[in-house]
Amino acid sequence: MAQDNYTHTKRSRKKGGLAIYGYNNGKKKDKPSEAGTENLSGKMQVEVKGAGDVRFNFIAINGFTLIDKEYKTPSKRSREMTREDFKKNVRPAFLKYIAEHHEPQLRKLGVSDAGLERMKKGLGLNGYNVHHKLPIHGGGTNDFSNLIFMPIPPHDELHNKVINPQIKNFDTRMGVVIKLPWRDGMVWERPLNSREKAQSKPTMMVARMKQKAAER
After folding, report:
1. Which tens digit of pLDDT belongs to each residue from 91-127?
2. Whole-angstrom distance between the N-terminal and C-terminal Cα of the chain?
3. b vs e for 77-86, b when ≥16 Cβ sit within 10 Å of the residue's Cβ?
4. Average pLDDT, the chain
5. String of b and e for 125-145 (b: at least 16 CB within 10 Å)?
6. Is residue 2 part of a domain?
7. Does residue 6 belong to any structural domain of this protein?
8. Residue 1 domain-assigned?
């Protein structure tokens, strides 16, 4: 049976002082989670401090907001048991549940009739992943509230761009507080842009500046 595929398109542009890049992800916020600094051009530069020396110039990525969360690695045996339970029991049950209760959101992601039928049988789809918001390696559980169904490209960015750089120089068995990408819900929704920075100037100010420029 043919499986659904996720098509990824990168783009880079600026819109109203907001830097936009990536997987058609992220949502516009009124304020950053941490204070920014203004450079000589008058644009607000966001700096969010992660674990260790890691810094981020965005407050959200792929629709996930950066929050403070302890990342503490359980024993190898505990992780193996959690992963085994996830593969055999939890993931199939989760796929069945969202196929039954979240069909509209899945269709917005491009899941077809055939894809929904596969999910109702507890089978995964090519190009999608069931993501642990707090990874098992970081102490995450298989509770449905810690799981979200999403395409692989934005999923991989959460790990490669945010989580992995923060934990690579720590003994996470002792626990470390990191900036964790988090969002509620069980099915990923495609937001407007990928990495979200602060608005450089209030909307009204931008409008007035454009009006003055047009009058010259």
Report:
1. 999 999 999 999 999 999 999 999 999 999 999 999 9
2. 63
3. eebeebeeeb
4. 79
5. bebbbbbbbbbbbbbbebeee
6. no
7. no
8. no
Give bridge partners of residue 21 from the DSSP assignment.
Answer: 12
Residue 211: which domain range?
Answer: 12-215
* Residue 89 phi, psi dihedral angles, 5° rounding: -120, -50
The type of residue at 156 is D
Which pLDDT tens digit goes with each residue over 63-88? 999 999 999 999 999 999 999 999 99
Concatenate the DSSP letters of all residues of the chain into one string: -----------EEEETTEEEESSS-----SS-SS-EEE-TTS-EEE-EE-STT-EES-SEETTEEEEEEEE----HHHHHHHHHHIIIIIHHHHHHHHHHH-HHHHHHTT--HHHHHHHHTT---TTEEEEESS-GGGT----GGGEEEEEHHHHHHIIIIIIHHHHTTS-TTS-EEEEEEE--SSB----S-SEE---SS-HHHHHHHHHHHHH-
Instruction: Quote the CA–CA distance of 117 and 139 in Å, as a whole number.
Output: 32
Q: Partners of 71 in the beta sheet?
A: 176
**Closest residue by Cα to residue 25 from 199, 196, 190:** 190
Could you tell me if residue 182 is inside a domain? yes
Q: For residue 170, count CB atoms less than 10 angstroms from its CB and return exposed for 0-12, middle for 13-18, buried for 19 or more.
A: middle
Q: Which value, in Å, is the radius of gyration of the alpha carbons in the chain? A: 20
